[in-house]
Amino acid sequence: MRKYVIMGVQGSGKGTQAKMLREAYDLVHISVGDIFRWHVRQHTKLGAQVKRIMAAGELVGDDLVEEVVRRRMGIHDWNYGFIIDGFPRNGRQTEFFMESYDIDAVVHLELPDDEVRRRVLSRRLCSSCGMDYNLIADRPEVEGRCDICGGELITRADDTPEALESRLSDYHEKTRPVLELFRRKEVVHDVDGRASVEEVQSAIRKTLGLPSPRG
Ligand SMILES: [Zn+2]
Q1: Is the N-terminal amide bond of 211 cis, ω within 30° of 0?
Q2: Is 167 annotated as a binding residue?
Q3: What is the pTM of this model?
Q4: Which residues have CB under 8 Å from 156's CB, separation 6+?
Q5: CA 131 to ligand 1 center in whole angstroms
Q6: Closest Cα to residue 111, out of 174, 181, 200?
Q7: Number of Cβ atoms within 10 Å of the Cβ of 214
């Protein structure tokens, strides 16, 4: 049983890395962001709540995040373990989490703020189907057009330099106490997030002592 947390600023590729670990080691990937997006798409009551909060340019509150995680963890569908992404977000949640789940390791993807800016500000989104693009890594074939549906590519409303600065400082402020608590338990593995997706993945596997994936 492997119980991991993955942490990293937006643009650090933590979602991609978590999914690669999920595929290779049969882990359940619990992404708070994905759970919220699912609720928004399915038009659930929670989705409507989340949509309202985001439309106001605010972050989803800790209580709501905590409830979603608790409900998701309560399904107990992991046979080989899980990797959780987007939680815990503050000291109190970290303490609760460590007591409840006995985490094996925290993967901390490190990315300098300058690199975050470069990555995040090059993101685009299809206005019709919602597919994500990145003008550095996944350029569309036709400039400004979605490869899948031909829709117009737009910048996310919250991907302005000002909004990004505020999210960055918010991230650092909130992450510091979480990392400190995890470090006290000596479970944190710092991984350089500047390398390529494959290099980061193999660095993670190495530091966690994971065997080569099954055939
Ligand atoms: Zn599209």
Answers
A1: no
A2: yes
A3: 0.82
A4: 123, 125
A5: 6
A6: 200
A7: 7
